[in-house]
Structure formats: C-alpha cells, structure tokens
Amino acid sequence: MANNALVLGALVSNTDPALVPGPESLTGQHVKVERLTKSHFPDLYENVGSHDDLWTWLADGPFSTTADFVDWLNPILEMGDDLVVYIVLLNSGPSTGKAVGVASLLGARLSDRVIELGVLFGPHLQRTRAGTEVLFLVGGLVFEKLNYRRLEWRCNSLNLASRKAAERYGFVYEGTLRQHGIVRERNKDSTWYSMIDSEWPMCRKVLEKWLEDGNFDEQQRQRSRMEEIREILR
Question: Is CB count within 10 Å lower at the N or C end of the chain?
Fold first, then answer.
C-alpha cells in the first residue's frame, strides 16, 4: 500500500518574533554605521547621490543637484520602521566621519523573522575592508541581536557586481524571478539570495578572518580571498 504520510516542515524551536532595529549605532575598526539623519545629506550627495554609475540598476537617481537628492531623501526619513536606513561613516583616512554609503534593512516580517538587506556603496567603500566590515556589523545585528532567521539580498539579474558581492559575503543563490519589474522602461529579472541563521556563524568566522590585519600586506592588498578562507574553515 502506498505511503501517503503527510510530510511537514521542521518544527521551529524559537518562535519569538524578530525585533525592529533600534536607534543604536554600530562601530567597527573601519566604519561606524548609524541611522540616517538630515545632517548626513550633504556628504551623502557628494559620495553617493551625484555618482551616475551607482544608480544604473535603480529606479531613481542619479541626482544633478543636492536639492533634488534631499527631496528624494526626505520621504525616506518618514517611512519609519518600514525602511530602516543606515549611513556608513569612515573611521579613518581623508574622508573620516563622512557619509560614504548606505545600508538599509527593509521588508521585515517579524513573526517569520525575515528581513532584507540593501546596500549602496560609494567609491570609498567599494572593494575595501570598510565595505566588508559593514556586512559583518549588520549581520551581527540581524542574527545575534534582533532574532532574525533569514537575511535576504536581491538585485537585478544583470547586476553582476551585486551578484558577485552577495556570493562573496556568503549569501546563497535561490533563484531568479523573470519579468519581475520594469525599471527605466527596461525589463528587470530579479535574482534572490539569502543567508540563514544556521549559516551565519560560519559567515561570521570568514568575515572576521578576512578582516584581520594579518590578511593584508603593507599596500593593503589582501593575502587570502574570502572564498579561500571559507574553504579552509569548512
């Protein structure tokens, strides 16, 4: 006789809802991550809003004037917990204390313990230890303090830089939604990645190891790539 036993998902032992991110800042060796305020607008325009290439895959931007950028940012400040926007400030170098990038937490489903991460890094953060440290700090916040079990990352399927970054940080490819949107009168297929709570401890170890001073030479060139470190630690 055929076995018609119903197969159900695994029981979740921790069913407490996740928490909404609070006002606290996150401080690392290379960056400080703090909630967006109007005081950040001028630096953010200089380092993010005015750079045409950063907005290729987004529906808005770039912005030709600070005023246009401010008009775009002001409604974001009013969105509250629906879109939690963090600004990335550098701790050292010529741009110390300046806002050079954005990391946003959005689409939270507190009872399911799911949230999405979006990043928009200016040139000072791209391919740097500082940029990677942002992921280390935000990952720690999401998984270790706010009780989430899933962190999502999505991007235009043609945005190869974003896809490469997600995979480098340890996010797992889940699939592509075809004809998921229309951006600037062009088709958008959305590629989805995720990191779950059981994967975070290994991702944390990899990020910590890669960020160590000993992983960089006198010219601040990496000695070991993150993929190599991940393979060794497995």
Answer: N
